[in-house]
Amino acid sequence: MLDLLIANVHTPQHKGPVDVAVADGKIAEVAPRIEAASHRTIDGAGRLLIPPFVDAHFHLDSVLTRVPNSSGTLREGIDNWALYKQQKLTVEDVYRRASQYCEHAFSMGIQAIRSHVDVCDPQLRGARALTQLKRDLADRIDIQLVAFPQDGYYSAPQVREQLLSALDMGVDVVGAIPHNEPMYRQGSESLHELLLIAQERDLLVDVHCDESDDPNSRHVETLAALTAQLGLQGRVTASHITATAVMDPYYVSRKLIPMLAAAGLHVICNPLINVHLGGHFTHPKHRAMAPLKDLLAAGVNVACAQDCNEDPWYPLGNADMFEVARMGAHVGHMMGLEALHTMFDTVTVNPARIMRLSGYGLTAGCRANMVLLRATSVVEALRTSATRELIIRDGAVRGGAAVPPSGNRL
Ligand code: FE2
Is 211 noted as a catalytic residue in this protein? Predict the structure, then answer.
């Protein structure tokens, strides 16, 4: 006896409509017609069933702080965040804002978030709040945390110890920000030290890398070289790398992108934030996003992510991964039919690979985490930011527009 049968749905990967059978919190079978008895059957009416969205680059410690940024620059954002940390940040404050956002994100179909957490705070207030939140929300969202030295790994002598304490506390991934170190040389040194920590502790790495309009900011080259030298292929992510948009095209196409591909580096673009924060100081204005199309063509695993939501860097955001993918499609010239499907992958399967989510997907044996959309195709869903009708987590219907407040079934 099945626990749940979702009949007559389209999915991003199957040619025609299928039925999806769920038992013990897992997908038992996906087939054109499943006759088995089930405790509950939902008529999908030909709508699109997808695996949940994965947001692989976010900042839960600063979310919903609603700090204004009048210049719209990365620098003012970092400065305003430093002031907020000094004056207002508490463990309770981080927990309250982050949990409020996660509840909303869950209703928008997101079930996994990789969040950076600032470890330049001697009291590690963000890390304390978010490691607790990670445990408390485990039945709804898989939260993965990155120890992120926002002000620079060498900004203060105690940052190394704070970063290690955060990892001891349950923060999962090693972060870095080489372009924000006091000297260029220290950017390279920080990468070396931090990759060694990751190697020693067998952890993944996610670097805020070359988030800048400076064509000479080439830390991603160092990151790729060190990743290969230390045998960390497939474990390291370069986030942002917006400087690649203004680097010499010969260097990017002939040296850098092949290097990233050979090192198995993952790349995360944050289209909304990249376009907003980048391009302030160049004329003519450039697109301020990494060459997503070229990276994908070279075989690099690329994800798109939200990064910020109503915080010192970005006043908008709605946990809508369709909005993220749409901006990526516009900026990255990804409007062909196949390209739009690829953009959908950049907010689902590609970031799931980056986060190494186990049992992710819509095949037998995967966790029964799914979202039913009010659309019949990926392109329609992407175009309309389709309503999330049903949110299913580990085989149970946990929300969605089709679930009345009483919790009754569809
Ligand atoms: Fe970020």
Answer: yes
